[in-house]
Amino acid sequence: MEVQTITLGGKRYAVVEAKEYKRLRALARAGEDEFPPLPPADASGHFPAIEYSRASLARKIIRQRRAAGLTQADLARRAGIRPETLNRIERGKATPDMPTVMKITRAIEDAQEEEDKG
Questions:
Q1: Integer CA distances (angstroms), 3 to 14, 17, 55, 97, in order
Q2: What tens digit of pLDDT does each residue of 42-94 get?
Q3: What digits encode the pLDDT tens for the residues 7-32?
Q4: What phi and psi values does residue 5 have, to the nearest 5 degrees?
Q5: Among 1.10.260.40, 3.30.70.1650, 1.20.120.450, 3.30.190.30, what is the CATH number of 36-117?
Q6: What are the backbone angles phi and psi of residue 58, rounded to the nearest 5°?
Q7: Cβ density class 11-25: b for 16+ within 10 Å, e for less
């Protein structure tokens, strides 16, 4: 499959055929059961804030880590945190503090930049 890239506003974008885009979206959805579940809403339609934010953050980290082509061990090493800590965060069992979130974010961004250059 041939992929073309374009640059808009200083960012590189990949242009793929619509059929391939649909295939990739389906593939991304196939792994949804591997994410921590979002808690159900109560009778009033409200979600428990802490549990929801943990699961939501975990899902975002997992998606970004996978998109950057990193394993949990790779990301933990790059971020300077323990693999066990990252595992608990990705399972929605722990709430990271802001410095930890920033370490994870920087590590993912650095990995994505390396991938873009390569």
A1: 6, 8, 33, 39
A2: 999 999 999 999 999 999 999 999 989 899 999 999 999 999 999 999 999 99
A3: 999 999 999 888 888 888 877 776 67
A4: -120, 150
A5: 1.10.260.40
A6: -60, -45
A7: eeeeeeeeeeeeeee
* Both tokens assigned to 79: 């971020």
Q: Where does residue 78 rank: exposed (0-12), middle (13-18), buried (19+ CB within 10 A)?
A: middle
Q: Where exactly are the structural domains of the chain?
A: 1-30, 36-117
Return the residue matching tokens 């945190």: 81
Alpha helix positions (H), 1-118: 18-30, 49-67, 72-79, 83-90, 98-117
